[in-house]
Amino acid sequence: MKEKGILFVLSGPSGVGKGTVRKALFEQDTELKYSISMTTRPIREGEQEGVDYFYRTREQFENMIDENKMLEYAEYVGNYYGTPKAYVEEMLDKGHDVFLEIEVQGAMQVKQNFPHGVFIFLIPPSLEELKNRIIDRGTESEHLISSRLDEAKNEIEMMEAYDYVVVNDDVDHAVRKVQSIVQSEHCKRERIAKQYKQLLEVDER
Ligand SMILES: Nc1nc2c(ncn2[C@@H]2O[C@H](COP(=O)(O)OP(=O)(O)O)[C@@H](O)[C@H]2O)c(=O)[nH]1
Ligand SMILES: Nc1ncnc2c1ncn2[C@@H]1O[C@H](COP(=O)(O)OP(=O)(O)O)[C@@H](O)[C@H]1O
């Protein structure tokens, strides 16, 4: 498929602040379309079906996989997380830019299908700070924290596969950096499209 919009993928190790940065980005006036993920994890207090995630049973999720309706998916801490294909394809086809916030395994699957996507990797200012964020969030038990950190080190090795690396030192700062990547990629594509059109027009004369 020749997509008309740009697919942006924000990824990075667990606990780095992907969700925090994405939410802050979408609180600003943005023309990006956020792709709501599907998950089998239980809904948390304060979350809403169809806003934070589409909450589904394992059976429903596996049916989506079998029917080839997922753009990517990964099993993460015992639950499935994935991006439904239809919305992303429809939005890109209409010329909208689409934004995914997903973990590393899923991002690598997307890269295979969308090599022209823009892949942004969020890193912590240090591993010590990453550890503090995982502890502060309070969602992991003590013994899981060290395995999470080991996993994070492996995830950080995937950094080279990305187009941009953004340090999440301060949320506003990180959001501004992501916004400027989005803007410059957008300008770049528009310029290329314009030049291509002009070239064809010259050829027709
Ligand atoms: N592969 C993939 N990962 C996702 C998707 N949606 C969310 N995630 C990631 O799944 C992980 C767990 O998310 P969540 O259960 O909401 O907990 P969080 O750690 O508080 O963000 C995070 O790293 C998300 O970025 C998705 O559609 N696909
Ligand atoms: N720039 C930052 N400075 C300090 N704490 C942060 C920052 N970004 C995120 N956090 C905190 O770190 C924890 C992990 O953030 P979260 O968005 O859940 O990460 P991820 O989605 O990557 O797993 C949360 O408690 C969040 O409030």
From TrEMBL:
EC number: 2.7.4.8
Keyword ATP-binding belongs to the record: yes
Ranges for domain Guanylate kinase-like: 5-183
PROSITE patterns, A to Z: GUANYLATE_KINASE_1, GUANYLATE_KINASE_2
Location(s), subcellular: Cytoplasm
Positions of ATP binding: G12, P13, S14, G15, V16, G17, K18, G19
Enzyme type, top EC level: transferase
Reaction catalyzed: GMP + ATP = GDP + ADP
UniProt keyword annotations, A-Z: ATP-binding, Cytoplasm, Kinase, Nucleotide-binding, Transferase
Molecular function GO labels: ATP binding; GMP kinase activity
InterPro entries in the record: GK/Ca_channel_bsu, Guanylate_kin-like_dom, Guanylate_kinase, Guanylate_kinase_CS, P-loop_NTPase
A Pfam family hit: Guanylate_kin
GO cellular component labels: cytosol
Function: Essential for recycling GMP and indirectly, cGMP.
PANTHER family for this protein: GUANYLATE KINASE, GUANYLATE KINASE-RELATED
Stated family: Belongs to the guanylate kinase family.
Name assigned to this protein: Guanylate kinase
Record organism: Gracilibacillus halophilus YIM-C55.5
Source species taxonomy: Bacteria, Bacillati, Bacillota, Bacilli, Bacillales
Gene from which this protein is expressed: gmk
